[in-house]
Amino acid sequence: MSKSTQNRRQFIKQTGKAGIAMASMPIIHTFGEFQLSQEINYIQQPLPYSYNALEPFIDAMTMEIHHTKHAAGYTKNLNDASIAEKVDIKNTSITSLLESISKYSTKMRNNAGGHYNHELFWQLMKPAPTTTPTGALADAINKNFGSLDNFKAAFSDAAKTRFGSGWAWLIVKADNSLAVCSTPNQDNPLMDIAETKGMPILGLDVWEHAYYLKYQNKRPDYINAWWNLVNWTLVENRFKEANQA
Ligand SMILES: [Fe+2]
């Protein structure tokens, strides 16, 4: 097994449905062209591109505030809650924490979700990506939704109709089928309290903090623009790993 394959498998265990406790520190998780790491705290990674790299679809000020204020706050509050609630951080992956989130406080639920969701979200976007999925993911989308356009319509609808703040997701369910769903607040489909469970392979933040400066109340315009940023290579990799997990 190549080192990169080994690292990808480590990553999926850390962020996927087969989350496991970590035995030694630090672990560097390589996934696609990005890395996640975790040492003694849950750590926010640097943005993998510049704040203005996603323009004109997402503006630089939104990206900077979103990453340095909102997302950074989730990570800090997650670490605070983990100390207060005596989580053995060294041996508790973020995935395993999410999978047993019903045992913890609302503060833990909101901030563990917020940390995981945003760390994934930054990676799921990139400047000038390929515009469509290929290979096994493309086949699975056609099989589950009829066509890529049908899938995008279903996902966009989930994002538009999520009342208030939340996320839209493409997930791989336990039977390896694909499904679109949405979650409120900072919940996600890995959580044991989630209505629809599965491994998230694509997610879209529809909190107003993600788009209001540029799009104001026009959430559908933000969603339509965001499709130009989807890092399909990463989505394909997550799909493959989910099927192997
Ligand atoms: Fe956000």
What is the topological layout?
Elements: H1 3-15, E1 27-31, E2 34-38, H2 60-84, H3 94-99, H4 106-123, H5 135-145, H6 148-161, E3 166-172, E4 178-184, E5 199-205, H7 212-215, H8 219-226, H9 232-244
Antiparallel strand pairs: 1-2, 3-4, 3-5
Fe (ii) ion binds next to helix 2.
List of distinct ligands in this structure: fe (ii) ion
The largest sheet has its strands arranged as 4-3-5
Major sheet: 3 strands, antiparallel
Please report the distance between the alpha carbons of the first and last residues: 16 Å
Structural class: alpha+beta
Description:
It is a single chain. The protein has nine helices and five strands. The chain is of the alpha+beta class. β3 and β4 form a beta hairpin. α2 packs antiparallel against α4 and α5 packs across α6. The longest helix has 25 residues. 38% of the residues are buried. The site of fe (ii) ion has 7 residues, from α2. Fe (ii) ion binds next to α2.
Which key phrases capture this entry?
13% strand, two-stranded antiparallel ribbon, 5 strands, binds fe (ii) ion, disordered N terminus, 245 residues, alpha+beta, 46% helix
Summarize this structure briefly.
The protein is of the alpha+beta class.
